[in-house]
Design brief:
With 203 residues, this protein is mainly α. It is built from 8 helices and 4 strands. The protein has one domain.
Length: 203
Amino acid sequence: MKRCFDLLISIFALVILALPLAVLMMLIRIKLGSPIFFRQNRPGLYGKPFEMVKFRTMTNACDLDEKLLPDAVRLTPLGCFLRSTSLDELPELWNVLKGDMSLVGPRPLLMAYLPLYSPNQARRHEVRPGVTGSAQVNGRNAISWDDKFIYDEWYVDNHSFWLDIKILFLTAHKVLGRDGVSAQGQATMPPFTGNHCSKKELL
């Protein structure tokens, strides 16, 4: 049922949003140039890598050593708007159609984080990653990594069709309120260092 629901909603959303998506693509092309999309390998179900697609929100500005500048420097005003409204996530509906992602599930993080997870934290890969998830409706980037993993673990243990419906409705409310877009003093979220553990492991 979950996969059928994902397909129906993503197809419907892509059809309805076709014109707004075209406008956003044009704006990104004008403001940021090419490429329009940000593509990056992320871990999916069971940690298998897939190419996640988002709208580009940053420039490729580098320092004198040709290293990318910090996110806060490269993030453009258009990019800030796209992120605060979560419009940059809309291309992930394509990943949902392909079966790489689900509408609801733990957010796909970086491949580099895989060896840093504790056994409990790694359980987030027992389900498909989501466009939104339990952590996103409970603080998004404004909560700690510890709390993010706790919410993800809870979703793995309790996911259901009706829970997905509830999370989607809560996501709409959070997006409209632009809540939890970034951690304090960060453009998004500080890197995960692995020096964290779930509260479940401390009991």
